[in-house]
Amino acid sequence: MNEVVIRVRGEYEREVPAERGTARVVVRAQGSEPGPVRARVEADCGTVLADVRAWHDPDAGPVRRYVVDQVRTSVQHPSHKGRPRPPVHHASVSLAVEFDDVARLGGWLSQLGALENVGVRGIDWDLSGEHRREVERVARQEALRQALARAQDYADALDLGTVSARSIADVGLLDTRPAPVAARAFAAAPAGAAPESDDGLGALLAPDDITVRAAVEAEFVVAPA
User: Fold this and answer.
1) Where do the structural domains in the chain lie, given as residue ranges?
2) Do the beta carbons of residue 25 and residue 95 sit within 8 Å?
3) What predicted TM-score, i.e. pTM, was given to this entire model?
4) Is residue 212 a contact partner of residue 135, using CB atoms and an 8 Å limit?
5) Could you give the angle at which helices 102-112 and 34-55 cross, rounded to 10 degrees?
6) Is 3.30.70.360 the CATH classification of the domain at 20-77+86-126?
7) Which of 25, 39, 79, 88 has a CA-to-CA distance to 46 between 20 and 30 Å?
8) Radius of gyration of the chain (CA)
9) What is the third-level CATH fold of 1-17+128-225?
């Protein structure tokens, strides 16, 4: 009897506690004159960044990284019952600050809650780079072990014997059809980013676990005795 080919997919999923939090913050102001409005935003931005700059250390934290966007300005020309009103000038700047200490992040957000022109758009949770790579490596291996176990289950059901691997690939590479799921291990950020809010900042600090998934396709063969 010719060898039997068994083609299977292995998948693995794991929940891992988040380790890093990147706060997305916006500083904005409005008024009748562009100069004072821009100056107010720049001053408030300096207040927001005072502790961030002091805590910034890419290797030791607690602030691993921060990004400050350029100041954006605009002007509105309102009217009332067809009559023009004085123009309203707007200015804003966005910041992203990555913390590796949730408690320190919470304290910083509480301080921001006292600033009138500062809003928190949300927090993006993630793993550290090194830990992410290790978790994804384990996930890929576990997905392959699941594929092997599944193929052996099929072979055992037909009393065919022990299977051996012929080919292993990311999802979609053993077939020309489009793959419906990701081909490699990845960490999915928690869904449902927190809405922008100027109060209740403590509610933002409820980091969900990071979902790490991996999938693999494999062909196994078995030669019945």
Assistant:
1) 1-17+128-225, 20-77+86-126
2) yes
3) 0.71
4) yes
5) 160
6) yes
7) 88
8) 27
9) Translation Initiation Factor IF3 (3.30.110)
Peptide bond into 58 cis (omega under 30): no
CB atoms within 10 A of CB 34: 15
39-57: per-residue pLDDT in tens? 999 999 999 999 999 999 9
Catalogue the long-range contacts made by 83-88 (C-beta closer than 8 Å, 24 or more residues apart).
86/32, 87/32, 88/30, 88/31, 88/32
Amino acid at position 136, single letter: E
Query: What is the per-residue pLDDT across 90-133, written as a single tens digit (0 to 9) for each?
Result: 999 999 999 998 888 988 998 898 888 999 999 999 998 899 99
Q: Are strands 210-222 and 186-188 parallel, antiparallel or unpaired?
A: antiparallel
Q: How far is CA 112 from CA 42, 196, 206, 221, in A?
A: 15, 13, 18, 61
Structure-block tokens of residue 34: 């562009």
